[in-house]
Every structure is written in C-alpha cells, then in structure tokens.
Amino acid sequence: MHHLYYILQLADNALILGQRLGEWCGHAPILEQDIALTNTSLDDIGQARSLYQYAADLFYALPEAEKKAAFSSPLLQQVAGPVDEDSLAGLRDAWDFRNILLVEQPNGDWAQTVARSFFFDIFQFLLYTELSKSPDFRLAAIAEKSLKEVAYHKRWSSEWVIRLGDGTPESHRRMQDAVEKLWPYTGEMFLPSPGETFAFEAGIAPDVASLSDAWRAEVVDILQQATLQVPDNNWIQQGGKEGRHTEHLGYILSDLQFMQRAYPGMEW
To answer: How far apart are alpha carbons 204 and 138 in whole angstroms?
Structure first.
C-alpha cells in the first residue's frame, strides 16, 4: 500500500504544479514566457500521467481488502470504469491527494510563480537524479525521462530569480517578498511521509531528509547571485503529504475535475 502512496505523492506534486502553471496560459507577461510556462505545465502533467499509470497498476496488484481501503473518495470507490490516470486525477477528493502544500499555493504575481517553481524545481531535480538509479526499474525509467525536463525547469526558474532579484528596485522587492512568503512551505519537502519512509527502507528511493543540504546550498547560491536575503524563518507548514491541505487545493480540483465528476468514465 505504501508503495502505491509513494507513487501517488510524486504524481500529485507534478499534476497540481502543472495545473497551477497552466493557469498562466494566455496571461504571462510576454509571449515567449507564456509559451515556456505552458510547455512546463505540459511536462509536469505528462510526468503525472506516467506516474498515475504506474500507481493504477500497483493498485490492481493489491489484495482485494486493501483495494477497498486504498482510497476514501466516494466517487473513486463507486466508479464503474477502471482505476487509471484519468480517475486517479479526476475522482479523488482533496484528502486523498498527497502533494506538498508548496505546489498548491496561488500563482500570485510573476515573482511568486517563479519562486514557487524555483524551490520545487531544485528539489525535484535532486530527487529525480536519485530515483533514476532506483532498482524499481519502472520508477527509474520515469525519473530518467523526466530529469531532462526538470533540468530545463530548474534553469528557467533560477534565471528568473536572478533576473528579478538583481533587476529594478520594484522587481527586487517583489522577488524578496515572494521568497519570504513561500519559504515556510519548503521544509515539508524534507519531512518523510509514510510512503517516503517505506520507499527509502525498501531501497527504491532516497531519504528525502538527506536532500536538504544540497537543496539549501543550491538555493542559497542562486539567492546570493540575485542579491536576495535568505529567510531566517524556520517555521514549517506541513500536512499536504497526509492529505491536510490549504483551501487552495479545493479550488484547483473544482476546475481540474469538473468534467470527470460530471460524467464519470467519460472518454473523448
């Protein structure tokens, strides 16, 4: 069961961030960046799809008793169709999502969108680098393919942090405010969930806590290049990995899931 939950956690992070970035389509400040963010959103959703497909296969491998206990969302329990990437994304309620709180935070202004991606992209790059070596060959294949995309995401967001931080007084202020606002949500990435603990003990994933020093070193280096201050606030917002989310996730899901909830099992 914990193996399933671990894969779902990875998928949920990718899906929710992809959905958030997709909200910029047609609204980004310049056309080039509108296209860049839309492509990044599609990358994330593509990663989520591969991981949900894997999670669905793990679900069907569970004993019947565990299948019934796997999800609490009524629609997913009642759906007549298969458990697949569409139903896992479109029919689970917020309490069955295991994404970290950081990725569900609102886009805010351009600086806040950049800061959210920056913090997560560096973490995801470190994580996928380790997962690409996993003895879980299917997970390793997904991570290896995704790593090429994540490397671009990390470069894009890091360059924008530097550009805004070391830009005009206004862009510097906005970038610093965004870093301060989102910093408390970064610590959750390194607090292991039961699924992550299982994956580490089973030897298929790294200990997420062990990624903290490398993440911080890279983040601090970029912030210094951007002439930004590293926040000294050590408070950690947490709960997303256990299904306790901010109200923002509910609004994301109301958009994301409308068609599947209105017409469960619908096919294009």
So the answer is: 11
Structure tokens at 115: 């800061």
Give the closest residue to 186 by CA, choosing from 262, 118, 254. 118
What six digits make up the tokens of 152?
A: 């671009």
pLDDT in tens, 137-170: 999 999 999 999 999 999 999 999 999 999 999 9
* pTM of structure: 0.94
Q: Which two tokens stand for residue 265?
A: 């099992």
Rounded Cα distance between 260 and 262, Å, is 6
Find the distance separating the first CA and the last CA of the chain, reported in whole Å. 31
User: 260: which 2 tokens?
Assistant: 């599947």
| Distance (Å, whole) CA 206 – CA 198 | 10
Radius of gyration of the chain (CA): 18
Closest C-alpha among 264, 179, 249 to residue 13: 249
Find the helix or strand (DSSP H, E) in which 155 lies: helix 137-165
Domains in the chain, start-ordered, CATH in brackets? 2-262 (1.20.1260.10)
Measured in whole angstroms, the distance separating CA 144 from the mean position of its chain's CA atoms is 17
Quick count: other Cβ atoms within 10 Å of Cβ 4? 22
How far is it between the farthest Cα atoms of the chain? 60
Summarised one tens digit per residue, pLDDT across range 100-109 is 999 999 999 9
